[in-house]
Amino acid sequence: MIRLVLLMSCIGLICAEQPFNHNVHNERVVGGSDAKPNTWRWQASLQFDSFNDGNFYHICGGTIVDSFHIMTAAHCILSMDPNNYRVVVGEYNLFEYDGSEQFIRVDTIIVHPDWDNYLAHGNDIALLKLANPVYYNGYVEIANLPYPEQTLPHGFTCYITGWGSMDHIGSSPDKLQVAPINVVEHSVCSQPEWWGNIALKTMVCAGGDGVISGCQGDSGGPLSCFTDGAWVVHGVVSYGPSGMCNQVSKPTVFTRVSSFFNWIYSTMEQNL
Question: Is 219 a catalytic residue?
Fold first, then answer.
């Protein structure tokens, strides 16, 4: 049986008493490089306070989908108490205060109603309503989303971004990482030597070349693709192989945003 690993991990403490002292240990995209500052402005960091003591650590990525909502993976939700979370947007270097960050508390957590804690069953998507809106400061941007059921062709190059592991040892950078990653169409990804029947049509596969992949800490983050003349977030990092993340024929699997278009917008409307 194929073992799955949640692409998620606790990667250091951010001291809330000194919110601009980013003394964190952190991990990155496998095969990636430092992103250019102020480029992936819809990227968010989801941070968790395990002991309700004011200390937050990065657990997952996220995407700004409107001024009050962050899209992430359902498996990133470790507690349904919103007081355990905050979101950081405009973030780049987790070890330093860049002057671009906004630290925002979470007001409401909305997990997809069909999420059952099994990655192979899909529906790995959630929305976080923020206690205060994201404001435009030149370092943030609301993401474009694909139209309903939109798919991408095999081999189409997208980009994965995040602060996840760069190897199975857990080596950790400080800056947001980015890597080009090619889409693997469903007819290929669902073959037995790839992900087989756990690759659903409501998912996007990308990678599988043994070089570039998402990894622990990247969960919930965006798969960004330049389509129709604009950057569009087509995926939410969901799962990958256990052990080494960058395995041949075991691409990173994303929740397909276009499959959840109606749920995303109806949920945001209901939680204004």
Answer: yes
